[in-house]
C-alpha cells in the first residue's frame, strides 16, 4: 500500500511540474508561447471589463483557450462561459491551400467542464456541459431562431485541411442569423480573404496577416434559453505590405439580423472600430492591435480602400448573392 502511495505522490509531483504548454484552457494567453504567436507582437486586445493588459478581469467567467487540435496549436479564443459564446478568436492568415471536407459534428472544449484532455474533442455521452454550447443547442433550436453556427475563425481563412477542421469547435462559433452569415458577412469574408492574399505579403512574398473576429452579446436573446445570440459581429486585420513597405489595417462589422435585400459591409478604420466597441465595452480604452497598425486614414485613403476591395474581387456589387464557407458565391 505504501508503495502505491509513493508512486501516486511521484505522479502528482510530475504532473505539477509539467510545462504550461500542455495546458489548453489557460489563465493568460502568454502562458503558452505558441499561443502568443496568434497576436501581433504577442499583444492581446484591450477590452475594458473583460481583458486588460493581457489579464482576464473575471477569471471565473472568461476563459482564454489556446485552441489545440492534433497536437498543434491552431488559434486562440477568449470564451464567455456565461453567454456560452466566444468574445473573440485570434488567428493568422497564411494563405489558402487545398480545401478539405466539412466535419459532420462540431467539437467542444472538454476543459471548460472538468475534462482533462488538453485538446478539443467531440462531446461525450452522459456528460452535461454547463459552461459551453453543444451541438444540440444549434441542431434542435437553431431553425426556430433562423440561426446557424457562425465561425469567428472561418474555415475559408485556414490554410490546410487540418487547420480547417480545427475551426469546427463550438468555442469558435456564435448563433449567427443565416441570411446575415451567408449574405453580407460571407461576402465580406471572401473580399477580405482576397485582399490578404494579394496585399499582405511578407518579405518572402508569402501571405501573412493577423486577424481578430469578435461578437458583441445581446442583452437577453438566447438560443435554447442557454446560448447568447449576439447583436453584432466585428472583425479586423493588420499586416505588413512588403511591396509598399508599410503596415495596413481595416475593420468591418455588421448587425446580426435578417437580411432581405442586398447589403454591403464597407471597410472601416481601426479608430472607427474602437469607437464603436467603446459603446459596448465602456470604462477604458479599446485596442485590438499594437500601435504600428494604422488607426485612421483620410477620406481619400478610405475611398482608395473601397476601390481596392472592388479591384480585389469584391462581389458586393453583383446583386443579391449567397456565399458558402469556401467562398463559393452564387446569385439568388
Automatic annotation (TrEMBL):
Top-level lineage group: Eukaryota
Compositionally biased intervals (Basic and acidic residues): 298-311
Keyword Signal (UniProt): yes
Signal peptide: 1-23
Keywords: Signal
Coiled coil: none
Pfam families the record matches: Endonuclease_NS (PF01223)
Disordered as annotated region, ranges: 288-314
SMART domains registered for this protein in UniProt: Endonuclease_NS (SM00892), NUC (SM00477)
The DNA/RNA non-specific endonuclease/pyrophosphatase/phosphodiesterase domain, residue ranges: 71-283
InterPro entries (alphabetical): DNA/RNA_non-sp_Endonuclease_sf, Endo_G_ENPP1-like_dom, ENDOD1, ENPP1-3/EXOG-like_nuc-like, His-Me_finger_sf
GO molecular function list: hydrolase activity; metal ion binding; nucleic acid binding
ENPP1-3/EXOG-like endonuclease/phosphodiesterase domain span: 72-272
Keyword Signal tagged: yes
Name this polypeptide is given: Endonuclease domain-containing 1 protein-like
